[in-house]
Amino acid sequence: MAAAADRMMFEALAARARRKAEARAAAAAERIAGRLRGELPPGLRADVVDGGVRISGRRARRRFALEPGLRWLMERMR
């Protein structure tokens, strides 16, 4: 009986920690996306997606490869 109660307590603690971690990750992604929205050049946008932030827009990959300012901005956001 004690082992079952301990397991239930541990599972509740793990679930609470998981919820807190997910909330903090979502808040961090929103904070980073907000900063990017203010600094990205026209034609690019930052969106919060599962697991992080996505930068999209017309020719985003090519622009990232060719524009040193974009690479510098991404490095600053780390």
Topology of helices and strands:
Layout: H1 2-39, E1 44-49, E2 52-57, H2 60-66, H3 68-77
Antiparallel strand pairs: 1-2
Helix pairs in contact: 2-3
Shape: rod-shaped
Spans where pLDDT lies below 50 across 5 or more residues: none
Number of strands: 2
Specify the structural class: alpha+beta
Radius of gyration, in Å, reads 19 Å
What is the arithmetic mean of pLDDT?
89
Order of helices and strands: HEEHH
Give the CA-CA distance, first to last residue: 47 Å
* Helix content class: over 70%
Q: How many domains is the backbone divided into?
A: 1
Task: Describe, in plain words, how this protein is organized in 3D.
A two-stranded antiparallel ribbon has the order 1-2. The mean pLDDT is 89. By secondary structure, it is an alpha+beta fold. Helix 2 (60-66) packs across helix 3 (68-77). It has one domain (2-77). A hairpin with a 2-residue loop joins strand 1 (44-49) and strand 2. The chain has three helices and two strands, in the order H-E-E-H-H.
